[in-house]
Design the sequence.
């Protein structure tokens, strides 16, 4: 019989379980938690004894979670939220906060907003860390199962328990290498050209391609990449066009020439989305307020706005 029981569980063990589960590595979990590998292994053994399951087993050069660990990880996220809410019931002090926020964002949002967000959060709460994952085509389960606490996306997942707020609006421009081709100035030029584009997993096109399809207009796509960050390498040195948000001129597509799209394209609104359970959570509200402040400051200093 184990010398441990459920009363030996605490927030540190729950956080450890999530770190190993999300990182898929004791080494990376230790780095994330700021402790040694031996400390992680020791606490993991304690947790195994409490729950009566191996939790993680070797697979090749890494480890994989058992079915029980998958189940417990979801429960651990809920319990940690409840512990955090319990500890802040009497007042929230950012300087005393120790937490890791997981934010889902694709290339544009990640490069444009996340660096400034990290600086703002850490200025008030040195114990806060950020983990950024790709949002891809976001689904409600990402928030319901707490794979992340916040999603920044032009297409927020839908659900009666999913909250959202519009952050800003961007518009599309056509990017090209001016040393390899002239700017497309007419609709005919644009449609006659060959294009590179983004195809998110699983096979989700950009909204402009959905709109073009409704008009029975098709771009001649010669290559696609899974994110906006890959467009620049394809466009540079070639005759191809890329149609992407204007704000990418400040990041991944910096240095390329660009012109307005010579036919109607929809605006691209950007939202943040979160689960209803976090609606009145003071810590999560603090996170959202800082993200909105970052958006305002970033757009105020950006020349390429709609």
Sequence:
């Amino acid at each position: 019989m184990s010398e441990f029981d459920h009363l030996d569980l605490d927030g540190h063990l729950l956080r450890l379980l999530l770190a190993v589960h999300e990182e898929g590595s004791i080494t990376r979990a230790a780095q994330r938690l700021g402790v040694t590998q031996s400390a992680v292994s020791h606490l993991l053994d304690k947790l195994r004894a409490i729950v009566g399951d191996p939790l993680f087993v070797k697979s090749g050069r890494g480890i994989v979670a058992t079915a029980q660990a998958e189940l417990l990880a979801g429960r651990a996220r809920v319990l940690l939220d409840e512990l955090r809410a319990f500890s802040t019931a009497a007042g929230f002090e950012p300087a005393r906060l120790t937490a890791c926020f997981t934010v889902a964002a694709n290339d544009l949002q990640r490069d444009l907003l996340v660096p400034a967000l990290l600086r703002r959060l850490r200025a008030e709460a040195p114990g806060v860390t950020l983990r950024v994952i790709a949002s891809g085509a976001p689904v409600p389960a990402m928030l319901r199962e707490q794979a992340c606490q916040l999603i920044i996306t032009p297409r927020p997942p839908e659900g009666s328990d999913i909250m959202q707020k519009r952050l800003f609006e961007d518009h599309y421009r056509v990017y090209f290498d001016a040393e390899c081709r002239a700017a497309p100035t007419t609709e005919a030029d644009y449609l006659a050209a060959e294009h590179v584009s983004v195809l998110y997993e699983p096979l989700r096109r950009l909204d402009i391609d959905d709109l073009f399809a409704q008009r029975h207009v098709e771009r001649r796509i010669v290559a696609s990449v899974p994110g906006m960050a890959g467009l620049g390498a394809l466009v540079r040195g070639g005759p191809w066009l890329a149609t992407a948000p204007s704000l990418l001129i400040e990041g991944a597509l910096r240095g390329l020439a660009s012109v307005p799209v010579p036919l109607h394209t929809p605006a691209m609104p950007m939202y943040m989305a979160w689960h209803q359970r976090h609606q009145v959570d003071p810590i999560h509200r603090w996170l959202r307020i800082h993200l909105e402040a970052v958006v305002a400051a970033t757009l105020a200093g950006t020349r390429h706005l709609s």
In short: The mean pLDDT is 87. The longest strand covers residues 162-170.
